Amino acid sequence: MKAEAGMREQKRGGADERKYAVYRAALGVSVAALVACFVIGSLLAINYIQLRRSDPLNNPELVQLRERFAANPGDPALKESIRVLQLLSRKVFFTGQAHLRRGGLLLLLFGGLLLVALNVAGAVRETLPDPSKFLPQEGVWPALAVRRKAVVWAGALLVVAGLGAGVLSHSELEKARIRTRAVAPVPVPPQPAKAGDAPAQPAPKKTGEEALLANWPNFRGPRGDGIAHVKQAPAGWDGKAGAKIVWKAGVPRAGLGSPVVWQDRVYVTGGDETGRTVYCLDADSGNVVWARDVGDVPGASEELPQISDDTGWAASSPATDGERVFAIFATGNLVCFDRAGKLVWAEAMGIPENHYGHSSSLFVYDNTLFVQFDDGSDPRVVAKDPATGEDRWSAERWALSWASPLCARVGERVQLILVDSEAVAGYDAGNEELLWQEKCMEGEVAASPAYAGGMVFVANDMAVGAGIALEDAGGLVKATVKWRYDDSLPDVASPLAAKGYVVLALSAGALVCLDAASGELKWEAETDTGFYASPLLVAGDVYALDQDGVMHVFEPGDTYVEKAAYPLGEAVSSTPAVMAGRMYIRAAEHLYCVGK
Fewer CB under 10 Å: which end of the chain, C or N? Predict the structure, then answer.
């Protein structure tokens, strides 16, 4: 009996020791969480106070510079100082806002951990017997006191470090200087026409919105959103049989850039190690009107970049405003030709530090040429005067991508919307003002954004798809991530948003349709071949061109019903250009015109 009583007493003692161990562990976690809350809360308070005191968006020096510029609007040095100070002020503001968001999440996390630990400690304490026999040995309490002091001092040092970091970040407004940019664009004197060139045609009338929508000046169309503003769609072609093939033309140098079209001119680019070329073809016959090799650009490096097979030398699509055509290559050389093929200006932007090579397409809208130049050491977006190549504004970017820009009218302003490997952002297309930014991206982003119905849509394989609602009230733009989707996503083809749906074309071989408002999956259709070309909306139907050159035609809706499939008979990676009743398709070896 005594032995059994002793065993029971021993078991109770062991159980009590385990309870005390849990109790002490819970107290330790609660103390650590409390210290973390104190440190994070202190840093948040410091950051908030610094932002309130400095008010970077209303910097007194910036206000003074603006007043001076209003009195002397012709001073270019003053204008550049305002641009640089605005850029630094926004950078400090958005960095501070990001720190506040991250700190708030961490504070919430450690606060929850503190409550859980205290609840566990309280629950265990009520079941504990007399704690005297479990007290630590002599000399332990002084050691614990030393540890507590160490924790307090460590927290204080973290607060001081955070204060110092905040001060340093805000001092950028005083210390930063303009980073040296690439060589300025060089105007080129008129050049004589080459033998065999077609005679120059008169330039089209000055463009307006109606003329813009009737042409295909950019990658994915007039606004870069994949929507063709035509009433009549091409149909019924078969490349092997020759049905509805208006013409087929060889392009001597390869390229992955898409064609662009303005009235009677089709423009494409090509390149290899020996040279880079801009081609102009007659839209009705496919005859080469002119072809211009991009020669020595002043200030360009003689060194050639390392080229990935996924991009090549001419992955970026050209752009045209009807009077001129603009092209950029993997070398970073940007050129402008007029309709007759005369070089107007050229600029060496520098060889881009980009491990897949440069592939962002040029974009023309509202008499402005936008260049998204994602260089590893100096990623930026530049707005240029199309006639002279001079910079109108330039804005820094935070990370790289291989996507292209689009323009969207939100409220009273036109926004230039860009995506990179970290975030989606909207700029005022008339200046470098960053209107909003959502850090919801990750991975190596090649798919460009889409826009419809007040929402921006982005997607990247193995990462995230998202719908972001934009609201412009009184000049302040609010961006809200309405939904996320992380299942089947594209890695090359850009999403298409139209008629309340978002269509995704996957390189793995599938078509996916989501509800634009909620992100709900409506359907997923398996295909034999994957997609690199971005889907387009043409006369109410979606046109999705797979890598085998088969065009899948279907109407956006709650179910997938393929209306037609038109084979080209040649592999395709580029997105087509669309005109009324016609489509221009850049295939692996030829440029096709299909339709009427």
Answer: N
